[in-house]
Amino acid sequence: MMKHFLVAGLLMTTLVSVKTYAQQPQQPQQHDREGFFKKIDTDGDGKLSKAEVDAAAKDNKRLSKLSENFTAIDTNKDSFLDKDELKAYRKSQGPRKKEGGNK
Q1: What is the DSSP letter of 102?
Q2: Fewer CB atoms near the end CB (10 Å): N or C, the chain?
């Protein structure tokens, strides 16, 4: 009899946990922009050089656009991209399309 209560208790706990998880609103995955920046900023100086962007673009095709447009994105013409310049560039590009061509 004690076994039945134990099994029933475990089953109820599992069902409640699953139901609670299913009811929680799922957050869309946010891009980790800080992590992205730090990964490319290999010397840790808080800005991206053309060499850092080019090196990252070799490993990631999506970064090739950043590399190609480096001069245009570098609005203060200091030969580096900072977080504000990247933010302005992203904003000027409008919403990104998801995989498959849907917005």
Answers
A1: -
A2: N
For the segment 13-65, what is each residue's pLDDT rounded down to a tens digit? 665 554 555 455 554 445 677 888 999 999 999 999 999 999 999 978 888 98
Q: Model confidence over 75-89: pLDDT tens digits? A: 999 999 999 999 999
How many residues are given for the chain? 103
Q: What is the DSSP string of 26-84?
A: PPPPPP-HHHHHHHH-TT-SSSEEHHHHHHHHHH-GGGHHHHHTHHHH-TT-SSEE-HH
CA dihedral angle for residue 59, residue 33, residue 93, residue 95, rounded to 10 degrees: 110
Kindly report the number of other CB atoms within 10 A of residue 63's CB atom. Answer: 17
Residue with tokens 């799922």: 26
Tokens (6 digits) for 67: 């590399």
